[in-house]
Structure formats: structure tokens, C-alpha cells
Design brief:
The complex is a heterodimer. By secondary structure, chain A is α+β, with helices and mostly antiparallel strands. Chain A contains 11 helices and 8 strands. Helix content of chain B is 61%, strand content 5%. The chains are: A alpha+beta, B mainly alpha.
Amino acid sequence: MVGSRAVRAWLSIHAWTSLISMLFLLMLCLTGLPLIFHDEIDHLLEDEIAVPAMPPETPLVPLDRVIAAAQQHFPGQFVLLAQLKQSAPLVSVLVSPTAIPTPGMFHRVTIDARTAAVIAEEPPHQDVMDIVLRIHKDMFTGLPGELFLGVMGIVFVLSIVSGIVVYWPFMRRLDFGSIRRGASPRLKWLDTHNLLGIVTVAWALAVAVTGTINTLAVPLFDLWRVQTLPKLLAPYQGKPVATAKSVEAAVAQVRTAFPDRLITSVTMPTAGRFGSPQHLVVWTKGKTPFTARMLEPVLVDAEDTSKMVAPDLAWYLRALQVSRPLHFGDYGGLPLKIIWALLDLISIVVLGSGLYLWVARKWGARRRSAAALVSADQVVSA
Amino acid sequence: MNAPTVDPKTSRRITHRTAWQVFRTPLLVALVSSTGLVFALFGDGLWDGLSWVALSIPVALSLIYGLRVPRAPR
């Protein structure tokens, strides 16, 4: 039945691309499952931060006092950035012992935005979900591992596409959804593999493609920085990393210039790749659900806050920003996350059944040739 | 096209479906799923709800067809 050369070629492509990526895909699907509920699990494991009750109209203190409070709490260390919480009057400040931070090795201190009092402090640590995320993202190997998984993502996409192609010869004589549950488990699992695979194909492709794009985050941001920053930094040639005059003034400028955007965080001047040595980077997001995904930076001169630049985000960075929610499944509330997890489980069944089918075919072929040898042997010795 | 042939082993008629007939339902499911994926990006509330309905279709189909208990042989 599966006779034509083209079909056999596509079947071969499907088998090979699936086998090559199989191990990593299983790891990604299994680690991905708890990661879907990253926020919920963190919430369960963390201690609740108690926000002191105050009248709702209590004014916020200038951000400069908040930053100073964080600096006082860690004398001699480096304030990296301040995250403004939208849901509570809190500012989360990240402080690092080194000017260029090591991933995971920074203090996070939560400060009341109305009094500049330090409410909570988190030492550098990695909790369970951080570990699961690192396995999922780069298997603890940094950028090379991340890019390797990106290649596996491309191989997976080829596996899916070739799977769609070979769906046809297998389903030419069957109704959609029929699973032959006769004596042969191989037939049952073949039909199950085909059915589960084809109904989840749109979701699987979306997650695979966005996952691959996500692995390019570091190179893409570096590319954008290389394209954007030199022009912006040219006037400051030769100057050392600036000290910010006033974070509050910079934020106020951005709020006036962009009234329809919310401020999410401010990055202090830094030589690190996440910021600029001469600017405060004020990150903003839109107010609608879709534009809230589009983070846009505004670079404010650290010493003269009246000078600011809102560089255009390149198309590839916008693609990256859209790829995040589409990969994580966290943009539609808890029901979407549950559906995402179910689709993940179905994918694991597709992967497992595919592996079973390949193994069963190899064993079947070996048994047949072994049986042929045995009967030939019997003929000879008789 | 839809060329009925006779299976030499069982003498039963086999109908070969066309590509469109084979891919019709999967394509519909894929379109509904894709819609479900993007709707929740556009807004909250109703948009999310439509996403949930659309994306549960593949899950529901997997469960319905996958867990169907075979009928007892006659």
C-alpha cells in the first residue's frame, strides 16, 4: 500500500527527523508541563509579601528615594533595575554584588512605593521552577544549548510537516477518527498516533516555531543593540558609565511623552548587555491586552533627562515578543493553561506511540528475517 | 478520483479517498485551533472564552475517538 517512492521518501524523512529530535522533544514536553503553571507554582512556594494597609490615595514617594533605600540596604553593591508592580504599590529592585550581574546571582528587594520602606528581601537563589526552566531552555549549558534546542525545534517542524504528508497514504481507506482495535496493537497505535498527531498539528506547529524563535532571543537582542546603540552612544564617546541624576525625572518625562503607555521597569546605566552605559532604559508596555505584550524601551539620557529617544523595535524583535505568549500559553487565563497542558500530554502520547511504532517495525523486520533463517536452517539440516 | 476497486484478498470494495476528503476534517480542526490560539492575544473576557472553546476541540476529539470502547464483536 505504502508503495510509491515519494511516499517512502517522506516516511523516511518523518522517521529520521522524529528520531533525531525524540529525546529532546520528550524532555521539552515533560519540563514544559510544570512550566505552563510557573506562576501558580511560584505562588504556592513563595511566602506572600504582606503590603502594609494604607489609604488608597496615599501618594507614592519619588523613585529616587526607593532606589536610595535599596542602595542603603546593600552598601557597595550595584542597583541594576527597578520593576514597578502594576497590581500593588510596590517596587522590586534588583541589586548585584558585581557591576555585570551573573544570572540568578542578585538580590531582589521589595520596597513599599509609598514609604520607601524595605518590605521583603530575597537572597540569590534558584528554586525548583528556575531549575526546570534552565533544563527546558538550555539544559544548563547557556547559549550553545539554547541554540542547539533551536535546531531541534526546526527538526521537529520538519517532522510535523512530513507527518502531515504521510497522513494521506495511511488515511486513504479510513474514515477520520477511526482506530482499528483488532488483534494488532501496532495497527491500533498507528491509527492513534495519526489521529492525535493530526488534530494537534496546529498547536504543535505554533509551539515548535515560537519555541525556536525564542531560542534566538539573545542573538536577536544583540543584533538590535549593535544596530541601534552605536548611533545613540556616539555623542558620548570615551565617557565612563554614567550615574543617573534622577530616575523619577526620567520616568516623569516618559509618562508625559507617552501617556497611553505604562512603565514596567527602569534599568540603571550599565555596561551590561541588558542596558546602556549612558542612558536610563525605561521599559513601557501598552494598556490593551495585545499591546501589553509589546514592551518598548525609551532611552533617557542619564544626566540630562530632557533628552530621550524611543528607538523603533525591529520586526524580528516584535516577532520574538509575540512568540513568547504563543509558546507559554499564559495569555488566556488558567483555562488556557489547562488546555495547553492537555495538548502537551497528547503530544507526549504522539511521541511515545511514534517511537513504539518504529521499534515494533524494526523488531518485526528482525523477527521475520530470523524466522527465515531458522526455516532455511531446518531445510538444510533435515 | 474516487475509484472503487476490489480487494483481491477479501473481494470487498475499497474506496480510495481523495486528498481533499482525507484532509477536510483535519484542516477544519487546524483552522479552528489556529483561531483559538490568536483570539486570546487580542483581548480578555470574550476573546479568552472563544479561545478556550476553539482550543478544546483537538482535546475533545482526541478523547472521544481515542477512548472509544470497541463494540463487542457480533
